[in-house]
């Protein structure tokens, strides 16, 4: 037998060791407890040495952010932020600074709520962040600062149960799909009922895992009896009629968790299920044991299908960075393509597609790498209806993109189209 060179021997054992670690990791993923810890990563945050109740340390003006507690319909207490828009803050700076009080239990007793309620032009973005960390982790604060520059636009965001300072009282004492959806619905219900803010001046914004929470929450307020939603305790004082939101903006979505894991790379480097492509039986074994499926594709399809019956409008914007190393932009294209198919089988539908070639010299809408849109013809005439657009931006990666101008512009367009009608707003073209 030919002896191996010492370096080759070391390489062999290194690869064997990595393979063994991967096999152990895959085996652990079949355990629901370990799987949910890996999926939600709610314990991975630096809140131990950062005080999220001191928003000034994250670059906000004194009193611009009001941390508050929110009770969910199943008894959890969520840690949330209310961020004031800069224009409103500037006009009321002395009062805001004088009455800033840190963490509060009742947002309705704060000056921030008074400014939201008294402004007839007030708008709200409900933001749902991705997995891991807390409300102020990483690039999340840059998202809030970007959105707060939109006139009259307040931001509400929260940590899901088990994340940051939010509680985790319910069995199984670990974040679950049902639990996070309950959190999302509770936050939106709080805005619509307790804060009495209209849905027509509200945009739902989600990134990564937050897109799945956003899709489920939007579906609940259009068709709460949908079979694609889990059974959750009904929120107190919930509206008894379907809601039309100004817009729904999804950044880096995915069709479902099993589909995502086929190509997902942890930290943009470590693949999860892609090494198992050559072993379909083992891959199926692992996939069948995924406990939280997060079927965003099905929920968005149900949302668009229920919209005409409930007489609500849906303005859905999907954005994804082409250089996202965690979730491939092709998954957003897959989500859009499946939603587009719902439209193309019907009458009075308008669609368009623009894409750069390898040379990159074409005139693509908004300077994106790719742009696609499909809508009911009535939307183009300025009436209510359904509209879905996909914008593959060229930069931003997985996390940083949410604070980029493209997302802020998508939110602005949603508010503007809700107010003026799509026919009166024609976005320009850009050539690089």
TrEMBL record:
In terms of SUPFAM superfamilies, this protein maps to: alpha/beta-Hydrolases
User: Where does the chain cross the membrane?
Assistant: 12-34
Source superkingdom: Eukaryota
This protein's record includes keyword Transmembrane? yes
Sorted keywords for this record are: Membrane, Transmembrane, Transmembrane helix
* Protein name per UniProt: Uncharacterized protein
Q: Provide the species name.
A: Pleomassaria siparia CBS 279.74
């Amino acid at each position: 037998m030919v002896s191996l060179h010492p370096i080759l021997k070391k390489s062999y054992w290194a690869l064997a060791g990595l393979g063994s670690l991967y096999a152990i990791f895959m085996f652990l993923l079949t355990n629901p407890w370990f799987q949910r810890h890996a999926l939600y990563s709610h314990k991975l945050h630096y809140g131990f040495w950062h005080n999220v109740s001191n928003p000034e340390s994250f670059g906000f003006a004194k009193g611009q952010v009001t941390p508050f507690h929110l009770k969910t319909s199943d008894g959890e207490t969520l840690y949330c932020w209310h961020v004031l828009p800069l224009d409103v803050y500037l006009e009321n700076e002395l009062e805001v600074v004088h009455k800033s009080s840190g963490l509060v239990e009742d947002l309705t007793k704060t000056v921030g709520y008074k400014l939201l309620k008294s402004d007839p032009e007030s708008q709200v973005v409900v933001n749902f962040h991705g997995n891991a960390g807390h409300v102020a982790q990483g690039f999340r604060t840059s998202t809030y600062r970007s959105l707060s520059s939109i006139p009259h636009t307040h931001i509400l965001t929260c940590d899901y149960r088990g994340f940051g300072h939010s509680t985790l009282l319910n069995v199984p004492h670990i974040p679950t799909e049902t639990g996070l959806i309950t959190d999302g619905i509770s936050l939106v219900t709080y805005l619509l009922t307790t804060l009495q803010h209209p849905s027509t001046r509200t945009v739902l914004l989600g990134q990564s895992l937050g897109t799945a929470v956003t899709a489920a929450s939007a579906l609940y307020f259009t068709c709460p009896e949908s079979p694609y939603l889990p059974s959750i305790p009904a929120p107190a004082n919930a509206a008894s009629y379907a809601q039309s939101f100004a817009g729904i903006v999804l950044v880096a979505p995915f069709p479902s968790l099993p589909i995502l894991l086929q190509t997902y790379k942890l930290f943009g480097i470590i693949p999860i299920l892609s090494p198992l492509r050559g072993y379909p039986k083992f891959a199926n074994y692992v996939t069948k044991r995924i406990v939280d499926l997060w079927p965003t594709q099905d929920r968005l399809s149900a949302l668009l299908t229920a919209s005409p019956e409930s007489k609500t409008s849906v303005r859905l914007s999907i954005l994804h960075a082409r250089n996202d190393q965690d979730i491939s932009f092709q998954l957003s294209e897959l989500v859009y393509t499946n939603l587009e198919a719902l439209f193309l089988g019907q009458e009075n539908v308008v669609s368009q597609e623009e894409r750069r070639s390898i040379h990159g010299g074409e005139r693509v809408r908004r300077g994106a790498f790719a742009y696609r849109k499909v809508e009911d013809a009535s939307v183009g005439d300025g009436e209510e209806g359904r509209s879905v657009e996909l914008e593959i931006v060229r930069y931003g990666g997985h996390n940083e993109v949410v604070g980029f101008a493209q997302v802020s512009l998508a939110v602005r367009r949603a508010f503007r189209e809700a107010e003026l009608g799509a026919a009166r707003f024609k976005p320009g073209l850009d050539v690089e």
